[in-house]
TrEMBL record:
Catalytic reactions of this protein: 5-phospho-beta-D-ribosylamine + L-glutamate + diphosphate = 5-phospho-alpha-D-ribose 1-diphosphate + L-glutamine + H2O
Pfam assignment, any one: Pribosyltran
Origin: domain of life: Bacteria
Lineage: Bacteria, Pseudomonadati, Pseudomonadota, Gammaproteobacteria, Chromatiales
Coiled coil regions, renumbered to chain: none
This protein's pathway: Purine metabolism; IMP biosynthesis via de novo pathway; N(1)-(5-phospho-D-ribosyl)glycinamide from 5-phospho-alpha-D-ribose 1-diphosphate: step 1/2
UniProt record similarity statement: In the C-terminal section; belongs to the purine/pyrimidine phosphoribosyltransferase family.
Protein name: Amidophosphoribosyltransferase
Database matches in InterPro entries: GATase_2_dom (IPR017932), Ntn_hydrolases_N (IPR029055), PRTase-like (IPR029057), PRTase_dom (IPR000836), PurF (IPR005854), PurF_N (IPR035584)
Amino acid sequence: MCGIVGIVGKSPVNQALYDSLLVLQHRGQDAAGIVTCQGDKLHLRKDNGLARDVFRTRHMIQLGGNMGVGHVRYPTAGAASSAEAQPFYVNSPYGIVLAHNGNLTNAEDLKRDLFVEDLRHLNTESDSEILLNVFAHELQLQGKLRIDEQDVFRAVAGVHRRCRGGYAAVAMIPGFGVFGFRDPHGIRPLVYGRRETDLGTEYMIASESVALDTIGFSLIADVAPGEAVFISVDGQIHTRQCAAQPILSPCIFEFVYFARPDSIIDNISVHKARSRMGKKLAAKIKREWSNHDIDVVIPIPDTSRTAALQLANQLGVPYSEGFIKNRYIGRTFIMPGQQVRKKSVRQKLNAIDLEFRKKNVLLVDDSIVRGTTSQQIIQMARDAGAHRVYFASAAPPVRFPNVYGIDMPAASELIAHGRTEDEVARELGADRLIFQELGDLIDAVQKKGKSHVDRFDTSVFDGLYVTGDVTPEYLQALEANRNDGAKTAYGSFSENVIDLYNSA
Ligand SMILES: O=P(O)(O)OC[C@H]1O[C@H](OP(=O)(O)OP(=O)(O)O)[C@H](O)[C@@H]1O
Ligand SMILES: NC(=O)CC[C@H](N)C(=O)O
Ligand SMILES: [Mg+2]
């Protein structure tokens, strides 16, 4: 996952972009970047690291101008080198910068087409550079010296015709404007909002509404699947549907884990969705285990808290924060490499023994993916003196790779792949393991049918990919190229940036 943002303001936007990247940091911890536009000049700063480490005062001073775009990265393609930090820049036509959240599933075909037919050079292995160049080519086809927003919309329509997979993007053309678009399935989230100032109205496009809230913008709407939103440099906003057959099918894993609970995605409160997940899970426990002997419900911070609290309330069992999270350690699931993930769980979480001693504890997590967290946490609960250790997951078992922007490329790395629920319980060392049913998860997110979202991408749970074009061969190649071992080998990939001037 990545976090993206674009702002057209009435005064310098560097601080607002930086602040919004801090708020979107949970979507990507590996690299961060900002490009601003001042007159007809673009200023870039990007590097590997957290937003707070990438941008020093000297960079902020250079990031002048009233419009810009920003990105925090969690890689799903290419290398982890800083050359693949975003935004990406292409010189022709007009100069375009783009920040992308998602993953293209036909990247290899596009790469070939860009080279052989569109005569374009790609300097990295990133699919986001591909997306930018496809857009650039489609815009160039308009053949104009001076473009208007309709040309941008036509180019986005061209992107939709050529690109497959998940993509939400924000982009900028110097002296012209900032725009955002979402793939025809709306797999990755994207919202836009406005803020009134004495100097006039400012607009912002961002991955999650929480970024708008904290910067003082109010939400206008989600970018619809296939839609593009264009904000001109002088603050005029235009929207247009650019896809032939848009079908909203957002990624359900955003609601399970990725998004912040204080965000609203496709008109659904993530917080409420997680509360309902807790309720559903409690109902399942009451149904299938009415004589349970759970003494206390303990969440695994952070993300599971919302569901765990509701689960405890519904069961009428005490809720206790038995694990304390080190506030200086980030999200372990999106860390690069199994070794660092494993080590970070122990650095991140520690048990308060007296909450466990001689008790039957129900540990609750939002999801079990590789099992890195749950395996260690169950052991920690035992070491803390728990009598029995039960485990509940607010999501069903994750059994299939994700191909739309979450870095779960290898089925063999998923603990529930090819295992029954009992086998997973044994593998994790739990006395009993309860998974959410997929139907219940969908109900919980869909507000029991009250939401306008009719379907979700649930591929990590059922192996059904909404774009309908994910073949076993594609999955095989993905697993071979991006399993943990293969990614470690990428580490040495070139750091060379052929880009805008990027001050160190
Ligand atoms: O089975 P695994 O492969 O361990 O993945 C699942 C775990 O990873 C995530 O936590 P993370 O530490 O990333 O973030 P959080 O603080 O938001 O819960 C998620 O909330 C689960 O706890
Ligand atoms: N997680 C994402 O959205 C990743 C974006 C892009 N595919 C990259 O690897 O940089
Ligand atoms: Mg967690």
